[in-house]
Design goal:
Helices cover 29% and strands 43% of the residues. The chain is α+β, with helices and mostly antiparallel strands and 214 residues long. The longest helix has 46 residues. The termini are far apart.
Amino acid sequence: KKVIDGRKDYLRRSLRRVGNRTLELQTVLSAEGSFKYVPRILSKISKIPDWALENINTNSSGSDFLFRILSANVDPADDQVLNFNFRLEVPIFKYTGSRKFKVTPIEKKKYFVLDGTALPNIEGDSVIESVRAVMRVFPAENEPNRIWIGAYGKIVVSSWLLYEALPDRLVSRESAQRIQTLLANYLHQEDKLREKEEKLDGEVPELAVKAKKN
């Protein structure tokens, strides 16, 4: 799988505590990839859990992540709603729960957006009060095989204790690993789609020759 390691690849991220139990994460990255495949892969919201979660809990340090995604599935009533089951562990706080997210794809000529919002928790006992995440993907200028990605996330936790207990440096490092894993998984999907197209392109001339002979 491809990873962010080329000379032109770029990754910058920032994590901020903005008060009121709120964390903001911003990421800008660039990597090899063709923009034409972006909407074809990311618009299929119901298929995202099938490929995005591969190795998502694999930590390069060998230890467990503070936040682990246990599973994800599509809501039977709405194929743009994903339900995530997760486990959160910090030194003085442990929680296992689930949360549904409405994920909306927005396709434009020059960019593509995924807009995700956590739906209200019916049980009312979640450690997460609200989440909003927006990712925008657009092609690099004059580079057909490169994409730029900008992502913004805002998380409001329900407990001041949890807000203070989250270690900034560790959260930042773990989020960076997750970003690279998700990107690698996406690029793997792009490679499979490209290989499928190339195979079909190769079969078309063969079929034409056979038809002509017959």
